[in-house]
Amino acid sequence: MKKLVSSSLLGAALLLSSCSSQFNAVYKLNDYTYKYEYAKECFANGKYQKAISLLNDVVTPLKGTENAQESLYMLAMAEYCSMDYDGAAQAFKRYYQSYPKGYLAEHAHFYEGESIFESTPEPRLDQSMTVSAITSFQNYLDLYPDAQMKKQAQQRLFELQDKLVMKELHSAKLYYNLGSYFGNCEDGNGNNYEACIVTSQNALKDYPYTTLREDFALLIMKSKFELAQQSVDSKKVERYQDAEDEAYGFINEYPDSKDKKRAEEYIEKCKKYLSKHENDKIGEDELVNN
Fold first, then answer.
1. Could you tell me the CA-to-CA distances from 269 to 28, 176, 226, 238, 262 in Å, in that order?
2. DSSP conformational letter for 185
3. Cβ neighbours of residue 198 under 8 Å, at least 6 residues apart?
4. How big, in percent rounded to 5, are the helix, strand and coil portions of the chain?
5. Cβ-contact 181, 192 below 8 angstroms
6. Euclidean distance between CA atoms 168 and 97, whole angstroms
7. How do residues 267-287 score in pLDDT, each as one tens digit?
8. What is the CA radius of gyration of the chain?
9. pLDDT, tens digit, for every residue of 73-90?
10. What is the three-class DSSP state of 119?
């Protein structure tokens, strides 16, 4: 058994050594057509790094030949398959800029978007790559309205927009959780609560069909109530009225919401304050008149 295992390991080592030697020999050749054919074989066998090394060496010399377009596109795809998404995006862009009417131009545009998509971070982080991916897919759809991969591109756009919406939701929640931190509302300003309201309202305006509408609406309602509670007396009536209206609006739009009870409690508290304020005002007027 030990001899059999040793023989197998030796055979594998010799095979790897042979493959490595063959690649090195091919890499040193000046026969770019042969190197290209060997790169195609490497690509077909999933040896993307070897394919990339060879293709980087032959793309420029093959320019103007019948293999020019395919070699550049294959280089881009090899980088994509090896998960070098930044390199892939640049190579796909290089292809369609070099061959705007090329037979692989549509695919190059699509996979540029795919490459950038794969580089986008989770929603809490900077979303500049997400915006770039959206631009890339939108350009693809504009250039090819009957594109082969139209549905896939549209689905990517939905996914990317969801990331931007989630980014806004995280920001709005952060403002709400900070509340009166870094100051309070006594000077008449809302600070973080007002920032939460503005962020949420802008998100609803920019993404009216988002599935997270209720989450933003809840943050707006909660922030307006907290804002009313912490305001100076001169602003309390106006802000309690605004909070009450917001709570009614929330119930009307989301009658089956799990937060309906919270909205009803806000309405009750707002009415209680406004009623007390009205009674106090009447009492004060009577004193003045007497």
1. 82, 20, 12, 14, 11
2. S
3. none
4. 75, 0, 25
5. yes
6. 35
7. 999 999 999 988 766 656 555
8. 32
9. 999 999 999 999 999 999
10. helix
